[in-house]
Amino acid sequence: MRSLDETYCLETFKRLLAVDSTTGDHEPIQELIKEILTEMGFPFTVTHKGGVIAELGGEGDPLVVTAHLDDIGLMVRHINSDGTLNVCPVGGLYPFYCVTENVRVRTREGKVFTGCVCRTPNSVHVTEEELREELGDFRSNVCVVLDEDVCSAEDTRALGIETGDVIALFPRFEFSNGFIKSRFIDDKACAAVLLDAMRAVKAGEVKLCRKVYAYFAMYEEIGHGTSWLPADTKDILSIDIAPTGPDQNSDEHKVTVFAKDSRYPYHWSMTNELRAAAIRAGVDHVMDIFTPHYGTDGDTSIAAGHDVRHAAIGPGTANSHGYERTHIAGLKATFDLLIAYIAE
Fold it and tell me: Annotated active-site positions, please?
């Protein structure tokens, strides 16, 4: 069985990271994924709201394999009197996971400005003790400071920045001793794994056991990425991160088969099929449950009323929705299980 092409996977991950894609601002990343699929030679369709579905081939009992390309981020709520930006989260981003992060602000006209997420007051040395101890709050004491000579709301508006502009965090990719550190491992690393699996199919290294679609969704982080599916879909398999933690089985070096998340149990029979495929192929895996704040696009399809089975797999990943970390072994195990499941 063909293994993960680590070089391709990491380079593709970096290629995806290079395009900001805070949920809602999907057009640039959608153009990139269309370009990649065209390079591969797969036919694809684009959904009306945003999302790309490629047909991988195979016959019978269609399976949708999905990985999302939208990222958590921020949006300009209003412009403060000193020219800084009051912001609100897009997706599950919290102040404690992004204060001091560098950002890019993209306006509705396509202009891009850099800045930084800051506390206010922003220097420990001149901040009263009681203010130091306050939790960060986007509405009261966290803002985005622009890398521009602005001192008033009028100055900032003169740049073309306004309420509703989108803000993306710098990914800060690092690869060291097998560990991958970056924002947006959720879910661009998983998308890179799926793309490498597609390369294996295209090269004839994997013969599909059924008809397979690859669905690159754009709205997973806010809960409606795969609310529409191709009409003939029988099953949906999400590839997404498996958060690690004190009470979790998930491990950065392994792939997790999801048993349940905060919304639903995953389909018993489909989950058993994945577990059996992992055992048969000798894939290093665990099973895990994710509560109280986790869901995947497979849940979205169920909630939308589709008569499909749903399951999810993914690499163990630390620091979810922050500066995340996984290991190349976890991506390899995810690839191996995906191939084991879709191959004859």
Answer: 220
Same domain, 39 and 57: yes
Domain boundary among 169, 203, 227: 169
Within its chain, how far is the Cα of 312 from the centroid? 14
Q: Are residues 73 and 23 in contact, defined by beta-carbon separation less than 8 angstroms?
A: yes
Tens digit of pLDDT for each residue in 176-229? Answer: 999 999 999 999 999 999 999 999 999 999 999 999 999 999 999 999 999 999
Specify whether 49 is located in the same domain as 156.
Answer: no
**Contact (Cβ atoms closer than 8 angstroms) between residue 112 and residue 106:** yes
- With a threshold of 0.70, does the pTM exceed it? yes
β-partners of residue 325 are: 181, 318
Contact 227, 300 (CB under 8 A): yes
Number of domains composing the chain = 2
* 150: nearest Cα among 141, 140, 160, 142: 160
Residues 154 and 189 placed together within one structural domain of the fold: no
Domain that holds residue 131: 73-169
Tokens of 139: 């509405």
